[in-house]
Amino acid sequence: MTKAKLVTAHTGDTPRHNPCAQCGTPIAQPDWIEPGEGRVSYLWTCHACNYRFEAVAIFAQETIEHPPLAA
């Protein structure tokens, strides 16, 4: 049996007061944060209009040049 890994976010990294995508009311914090490779997804719920939406932050990939493995 594999143990699930709990992912934590630093409070300074978590977006705050994101406006609702439908009515524009600020939402204090996301309901769910899911990090992935080169991105972080946030699930938001507006308590004013009950609209739920996802926002995704995509980070630029650093290009690392590797020497050829074989000649």
Structure overview:
By secondary structure, the chain is an all-beta fold. The protein has a domain of 39 residues. 0% of the residues lie in helices and 32% in strands. The protein has no helices and 5 strands. Strand 4 and strand 5 form a beta hairpin. The chain starts with 17 loop residues before the first strand and ends in a 13-residue tail after the last strand. The N terminus is likely disordered.
Mean pLDDT: 80
Ends apart, CA distance between termini: 44 Å
Proportion of residues in helical segments = under 10%
Radius of gyration: 18 Å
- Count every beta strand, where a strand is a DSSP E run of 2 or more residues: 5
Mass-distribution shape: rod-shaped
Query: Which H/E pattern describes the elements?
Result: EEEEE
Largest sheet: 3 strands, antiparallel
Number of separate helices: 0
**Helices and strands: which structural class?**
mainly beta
> Spans with pLDDT under 50 lasting ≥5 residues?
1-11
Main attributes?
71 residues, two-stranded antiparallel sheet, 0% helix, mainly beta, rod-shaped, three-stranded antiparallel sheet, 5 strands
Question: What is the strand and helix layout of this fold?
Answer:
Layout: E1 18-19, E2 26-27, E3 32-36, E4 39-45, E5 52-58
Antiparallel strand pairs: 1-2, 3-4, 4-5
What can be said about this structure in brief?
0% of the residues lie in helices and 32% in strands.
